[in-house]
UniProtKB/TrEMBL annotation:
Record's protein name: Alpha-ketoglutarate-dependent dioxygenase AlkB
GO biological process, one term: oxidative RNA demethylation
Pfam families xrefs: 2OG-FeII_Oxy_2 (PF13532)
Keyword match NAD: no
Lineage, opening ranks: Bacteria, Pseudomonadati, Pseudomonadota, Betaproteobacteria, Neisseriales
Species this chain originates from: Paludibacterium paludis
GO molecular function: broad specificity oxidative DNA demethylase activity; ferrous iron binding; oxidative RNA demethylase activity
Amino acid sequence: MTEDLFGGPPGEAERIGAGSALLRGFALPSAADLVAAVDAVISAAPFRRMSTPGGQAMSVTMSNAGALGWITDRRGYRYSPVDPQSGRPWPPLPGCVLSLGRAAAALAGYEDFVPDACLINRYEPGSRMSLHQDRDEKDFDAPIVSISLGLPAVFLFGGLSRSERTARVTLAHGDVLVWGGPDRLRFHGVMPLGAGEHPVTGACRINLTLRKAG
Ligand code: MD3
Ligand code: FE
């Protein structure tokens, strides 16, 4: 991590863990492009509600772009090169998503981030994500970059065990989070989304997570 990044003017980059950075508004200049890119992905691979291995339907609907996509069903959590709904490869990772993610990772000290997967989560009012770790990726040395669009959400981040107390931070339209190093396996989740209407996305929040899965 570059120390000076976090010593700059407030609002530039906020350190929320030793290996993490919150870049508020970093995606704002490209938000219109990002939303259009998501729309194009979704027209080929629509949002769908997946089930946990235990058979519980998730409240968030999901899709993917890139060589690999995260899926869950009765057989478990995993990455797949094909969309099980269509039998076709996931749509390619949009260029504007890739370049933004790489720029954010580099700012946080992770040069040469080469993601091969982008999970797209869609939250409607009431949708939430319970506390979990992201551990289906092969390589925990690579960071995860998260891009928030649309309605704000309260993000929870905990420690390396589920029982550790969680801190919360509101993620707004255009905010970008980079998680890596000692924070890569932190428990995290999202509180139920509040009602609202966003001028760019309407009544929802979209979260993109760029990952090196394979
Ligand atoms: C901290 N998504 O898709 S993104 C997920 O807002 C997920 O949709 C949330 O958790 C969302 O798995 C949170 C921020 C995030 C992503 C990955 C992390 C935080 C993380 C991995 C490790 C630690
Ligand atoms: Fe996660």
